[in-house]
Amino acid sequence: MTCEHCPLENSRENLLEASNLSKRFKSRGTLKTALDNVTFCVPRGSLTVILGPAGAGKTTALRLLAGLEKEDAGSIVLDGLNMSGVEPRARDVAMIFDNLALYPNKTGFGNMASPLRERRLPAQEIERRVRDVAAKLRILHILDRLPGTMSGGERQRVAMGRVLVRSPRLFLLDEPLSSLDAPLRIELRAEIKRLQREQGHTFLMATPDFSEAMAIADTVILLREGQVLQTAAPQELYDCPVDSEAARFVGAPQINILPAFYNEGRVRTAGISFPVPDRIALTVANLPLEGFLLGLRPENIRLESVTSTVNDGWAKIIDVEAMGLRRSITIEQQGAHIRVLTDALRGEDFSIGQRVVWRPVDTERLLVFSRKGGKNLLRPNTA
């Protein structure tokens, strides 16, 4: 498995190529870097997600692509055409913002039809397009209603429909589901993926929600502080993060990052030791005496209760959190707090204050990071 995609490989298959984009803004008299030498591509007919925390540069990237902001450096090539100096209207790009921005005095039909009327399309064509998209979004029944009478999910579908009727070359979605409650977010993200696949559209979506990115993306571009940290398929990002910070950002409960040491085929961390596969042993055997950081996903840990009165070698449960089908359990051993994810039924066997022992379920899934910089030492070409 390769751990990272080449950002601009197979350029003929890419609808969009952004190369070395940089953007700075003035803030209180000083220049703040929003994007720093960012390069990525969006394959034709794909759903690509830009993932990152607030302030990472996600919205800035989308605004540059849409032509709403001018890049300080770099280039944007859309469908083989350089977009330098091209006005937003001429780019054939549609953007859905995080706010709904519907016309309050227009019906659902009127809102969806507005971009087509601006283009002076025939009334019959407008009617056909609006009703066709409304049917796909399952909102035919609200076309005659005003936004004030619609639910949040219905308004979001109308906002999406207003963009979809245009059939642009590229759709840009800036956290389009952030204002919705959890059930609606899950419903509409599935709707976005369904529409993208069925219609063959090209979507580039920004979100701070890793679970959203994992659920719908073909490719994830992970941004941190205006730089591309990693470009990978969702599962690659989870299994092979570029560093410990990327590993922490993708996953809930958060991955356990523990100081560890290696000796004669075994790793010791937080008061326990266990054998590791050869690929890990070869990686960590010659590290400095300071050791390394071991990454253990909470679902890759198994707990067993302790009945012995011996005080050594066991951990204590300090928190139990119900999560529906799963339970998140936090244990403490030798000052380290370790998160464990277990099935809800099995989790009922554990309670706060109970003594337990723990072990990795699958040592092949362990991650190894450097003490300095947190780089993933198991990735190819890692210095």
How would you describe the overall organization of this protein?
There is one protein chain. With 383 residues, the protein is α+β, with helices and mostly antiparallel strands. The protein has 2 domains: 11-245, Rossmann fold (3-Layer(aba) Sandwich), CATH 3.40.50.300; 249-369, OB fold (Dihydrolipoamide Acetyltransferase, E2P) (Beta Barrel). The protein contains 10 helices and 20 strands. The chain has helices spanning 58-66, 108-118, 123-137, 152-164, 182-199, 210-216, 234-239, 244-249, 278-284, 344-347, and strands at 14-27, 30-43, 47-51, 73-78, 81-82, 93-96, 170-174, 203-207, 219-224, 227-232, 256-263, 266-269, 272-275, 292-296, 301-305, 315-323, 326-333, 336-343, 355-360, 367-369. The strands form 4 sheets. The chain has a 6-stranded mixed β-sheet, with helices on both faces. Strands 13-12-11-14-20 form a 5-stranded antiparallel β-sheet. A hairpin with a 2-residue loop joins strand 12 (266-269) and strand 13. Helix 2 (108-118) runs parallel beside helix 4 (152-164) and helix 3 packs across helix 4. The longest helix is centred in the middle third of the chain and has 18 residues, at 182-199. The two termini are 19 Å apart.
Topology (SSEs and partners):
Layout: E1 14-27, E2 30-43, E3 47-51, H1 58-66, E4 73-78, E5 81-82, E6 93-96, H2 108-118, H3 123-137, H4 152-164, E7 170-174, H5 182-199, E8 203-207, H6 210-216, E9 219-224, E10 227-232, H7 234-239, H8 244-249, E11 256-263, E12 266-269, E13 272-275, H9 278-284, E14 292-296, E15 301-305, E16 315-323, E17 326-333, E18 336-343, H10 344-347, E19 355-360, E20 367-369
Parallel strand pairs: 3-8, 3-9, 6-7, 7-8
Antiparallel strand pairs: 1-2, 1-4, 4-5, 9-10, 11-12, 11-14, 12-13, 14-20, 15-19, 16-17, 16-19, 17-18
Helix pairs in contact: 2-3, 2-4, 3-4
